[in-house]
Amino acid sequence: MNSVAIVLVGLVAALHFYFLALEMFLWTTPRGRATFGLTEEFAQDTKMLAANQGLYNGFLGAGLVWGLFADKTDVTLFFLGCVIAAGLFGAASVGRMILFVQALPAAAAFAAVALAA
């Protein structure tokens, strides 16, 4: 893998660890509520659902880190594909911004990894 691919995959992994923190630990805080545009009541009512979602984002980040450190292109491409699929679904079901925040960075990383292989 070349350095561009490594940096892009690392960025996608870091984004998913940030999503983990937002959804698992900061969901009900002013920062978490502002990030997702939530009322205090809605954040409280959905904090366990958000924590579950955050855990899944952590798994995606961990899979990307595994692929990088083990230098396994197939593993990296698999997890990037999962991120792209999640981003496309999120964009279609929750909001278009997810396309730009999650799917597009993963697609750029996927292309860089595939081209480097």
Describe the protein's architecture and organization.
Helix content is 85%, strand content 0%. With 117 residues, the chain is an all-alpha fold. It has one domain. It starts with a helix and ends with a helix.
How much beta, percentage-wise? under 5%
| Number of separate structural domains | 1
Helix content: over 70%
User: What is the global morphology?
Assistant: elongated
End-to-end separation in angstroms reads 6 Å
Work out the radius of gyration. 15 Å
Brief digest:
This protein is mostly helical and 117 residues long. It has helices spanning 3-24, 30-36, 40-69, 73-93, 97-116.
Write out key terms for the chains shown:
5 helices; mainly alpha; single chain
List the helices and strands and how they pair.
Elements: H1 3-24, H2 30-36, H3 40-69, H4 73-93, H5 97-116
